Amino acid sequence: MSHYRSNLRDIAFNLFEVFGRDEVLGRGPFAQMDGPTAREVLAEVERLATGPFADGFVEGDRVGAQLVGEGEVVLDAGTRRALDAYFGGEWHRLNLPEHLGGFGASPSLQWACSELLLGANPAAVLYSGGPFFATILDGLVTAEQRERMVAPMVERRWGATMVLTEPDAGSDVGAGRTSAVLADDGTWHLTGTKRFITSGDFDWPENIVHLVLARPQGAGPGTKGLSLFIVPKFWVHEDGSLGERNGAVVTGIEDKMGLKASSTCTLTLGEQVAARGLLVGEVHDGIRQMFKVIEYARMLVGTKAIATLSTGYLNALDYAKQRVQGAELARAADKTAPRVAIIRHPDVRRMLMTQKAHVEGLRALTLYTATVQDDIVVGEADGRDMTDAQRRNDLLLPLVKGYGSEKSYELLALSLQVFGGSGYCRDYPLEQYLRDAKIDTLYEGTTGIQALDLFFRKIARDSGAALAALLGEILAFAKGDAGNGALAQERALLATGLEDVQGMLGTLVGFLGHDSGRGVELVGLQTTSLLESLAELVVGWLLLRQAEVALAALFRLGNSGAPAPPGAAAGDRDAAFYEGKVAAARFFVRTVLPELTARRAVLERTDLAVMELADAAL
Fold it and tell me: How far is Cα 201 from Cα 60, in angstroms, rounded to an integer?
């Protein structure tokens, strides 16, 4: 049986009942993909996820990617079968625009499908990204580069990587020392060593395109001196034919905690053979160009984390329903009491509801962010200025990636806990989920970096206007009558949470003018707390929006939402689903949002004691 448990019902609920994607699909830039077609696509991708993708998940972990010969990485058979099925079904076209042969899918549908595949086999998804990288390059390259590189990346299904990190320059990208020298033939020769390169080599595609940040000879220091280069594994001649092996060679792969099917590589450039590259767009604007890839990667990582938590929770739920252990707590002293499934035990139910509320809220956060991306695509197609929507998307990305990855890893431990000792064993997928998920808090910017980015860039760059607009919508909802009175207590708690977040922001801004002149350190001690609090406020808001929709649906059904027994009619199953949505929202708002008040109090008392403590005392 497949390890992967999907939640297509909740995905569809978000897309179509809460966020109204039927109003967007089948029109404008998404004319090819109407609502009914989108639902069929989701069903087919779910089959792909639960079939070939999930089938290779364990094998990829046990066998892993292997470095053989001169820089060649060999994949396990299960991952190869997943890629065969993905590209054989032309599913890479789901993430492409029409002019590159795509299906015309909206970002919200793309990310919904990505959740399904990432939950089933994240390594296979990471290997499949070449055609999507082509969509990013498509808007940056020259016409000659587009014909030479972008077109075959799609049609010949090449792999692709983003190459930033160096052994001595991790998150500090501007400290990178990889150099680029212009050759007589107009190409650039790169020299240096890059580390932690995802999919740096693998033996499925005929070619791999590396997008490499390097410093041209004579360029200045820092990120502004970096340029972006296309460095293929095999040189691509001007007529599109493949030439000799290029000098970008994998010289090592990491022995990792998890995600072992994904090759995480050391890439050496120009050591024995020249590593030839093309300057992207023939302009020196590397960090801005690469950030288009980085933003996609951060959304991908957050979605991966949330997808893993979802299948972890659903596996735990299935186990709790089947595992019989002990009597109900109220009859624990009665030796004749019947044994019950552990789902009847209060602490197990607490763990399950904690997971349910968070994962459904995180899914809402991801898909809400994706709907903002829908709006940007539609608006730009209409010629409208979408600056406000773009800034909202930018504001939400640190929440998706930073909070999504941290909370998912934390709660996967609860998923395993439900299994007891069995969860610690390889008989169940939870231990692999945990190992595979830890990386999500680390790569594409650690959580601390996401928090700094949120405060110093995403909030500060427009003097807080994007954040103020978002908080204004939350305030309007909190003051409204969502739920026709049934959610009055929850709306009041949301309003209190909003006040707490606003208070935290005010305190952090005030720190910047601290008399010590070290206010930025005070801020740095609490930016992660701000990220967590803002994310929980937004998640609470989105869950209550879901509850409002669910309550209206229950009213239409004329059903109180009593639990549906096995084999119940569809209407009863729907009632149980909607009742679960209301319960999850109430649980989150009542148990999570009150923590913001305590967090605010801690933040307001921040001082420099930790910073002034001698290193030796830590």
Answer: 16
Strands (E) across 47-89 are located at 66-68, 72-74
Locate 449 and state its tokens.
Answer: 């970096």
What are the φ/ψ torsions at residue 405 (nearest 5 degrees)? -75, -40
Does 148 fall in a domain?
no
Q: How does 205-225 read in b/e, with b if 16+ C-beta sit within 10 Å? A: bebbbbbbbbbbeebeeebeb
95-107 per-position pLDDT tens digit: 999 999 999 999 9
pLDDT, one tens digit per residue, over 349-407 is 999 999 999 999 999 999 999 999 999 999 999 999 999 999 999 999 999 999 999 99
Collapsing DSSP to helix, strand or coil, 20 comes out as: coil
Phi and psi for 23 in degrees, rounded to 5? -75, -15
Based on the fold, state whether residues 426 and 502 are members of the same structural domain.
Answer: no
If we measure between CA atoms, which residue out of 182, 159, 538, 198 comes closest to residue 367? 538
Whether residue 415 sits in one domain with residue 290: yes
573 vs 583: CA distance, rounded Å: 15
Polymer length of the chain: 618
Residue 533 lies in a domain: yes
Token readout for 352 is 């399950």
Q: Given the residues 115, 360, 431, 444, select the one marked as catalytic.
A: 444
Residue 142 lies in a domain: no
Can 254 be counted among the known catalytic residues?
A: no
Q: Which of 220, 249, 284 is the last residue of a domain?
A: 284
Asked whether residue 214 falls in the same domain as residue 312, the answer is no
The verdict on pTM exceeding 0.90 is: yes
Same domain, yes or no: 30 and 121: yes
Domain CATH number, residue 14: 1.10.540
